[in-house]
Amino acid sequence: DADVTQTPRNRITKTGKRIMLECSQTKGHDRMYWYRQDPGLGLQLIYYSFDVKDINKGEISDGYSVSRQAQAKFSLSLESAIPNQTALYFCATQGDGEGYTFGSGTRLTVV
Amino acid sequence: RKEVEQDPGPFNVPEGATVAFNCTYSNSASQSFFWYRQDCRKEPKLLMSVYSSGNEDGRFTAQLNRASQYISLLIRDSKLSDSATYLCVVNMLGNEKLTFGTGTRLTIIP
After folding, report:
1. B82 by DSSP, 3-state: which?
2. A94 neighbourhood in chain B, CB within 8 Å
3. From B52, B76, B100, B107, which residue has the greatest number of CB atoms within 10 Å?
4. What sign for the dihedral angle of Cα B58, A98, B2, A81?
5. Tens place of pLDDT per residue across chain A (111 aa)
6. Is A108 helix (H, G, I), strand (E, B) or coil?
7. How far away is chain A from the Cα of B98, in angstroms, using its nearest Cα?
8. d(Cα B105, Cα A57) in Å, to the nearest integer?
9. How many residue pairs from chains A and B have C-beta atoms closer than 8 A?
């Protein structure tokens, strides 16, 4: 099994729909992150969490919300999806002094 | 000025050649440095950390120049499988988050 698992891998949804992207990890890391990546652009931080009770906004949090249900689980929600939220979404975890371990990504298309 | 800047490329390099790219960072308090590799439509994967003394892993060599605030990645004897986007990543002291460059695209030509 992968260390960081994202579901779904691909999703097409309609404008205005609510959608949740899920992330779970088996690395036992406290720190978890959600990023989006658009073609030709770098990774943009949406939200991050350093433990179950700690949630922080990133660079582009508007239109998104998160929930840290447990140390191993960190979900990202789009309350009312819009077309410019079409992107590749990555979840990542981080251990002390280490780089990130990424999930395989969720390709989201909002039509 | 961006916190982390990379030449986007593309770098088109013949197989077997040596290729190097640099990455500059703006914050002198930056503490940790990494190179990640990302294949098309895949997740970024850690290639190597960059240590103050420089470090080597097989055909890959990473170096840090704190005075000029840049890190470099050298790939020797390039293989077709080295074709990817290489992301420069920096972590500042006291900031738990990593800052990513936009990546340098490398294509190895047969």
Report:
1. helix
2. 96, 98
3. B100
4. positive
5. 679 999 999 999 999 999 999 999 999 999 999 999 997 778 999 999 999 999 999 989 999 999 999 999 999 999 999 999 999 999 999 987 778 899 999 999 999
6. strand
7. 8
8. 30
9. 44
Cβ–Cβ gap A94/B96 under 8 Å = yes
Give the nearest partner residue to B96 out of A40, A50, A99, using CB atoms.
A50
Q: Please report, in angstroms and rounded to a whole number, the separation of the first and last CA atoms in chain B.
A: 37
Picking from B23, B37, B39, B43 by the largest number of A CB atoms within 10 A of its own CB, the best residue to mutate is B43
Cα distance between residue B57 and residue B48, in whole Å: 8
Rounded distance between C-alpha atoms, residue B95 and residue B76, angstroms: 33
CB atoms within 10 A of CB A43: 27
What is the CB neighbour count within 10 angstroms for residue A92? 26
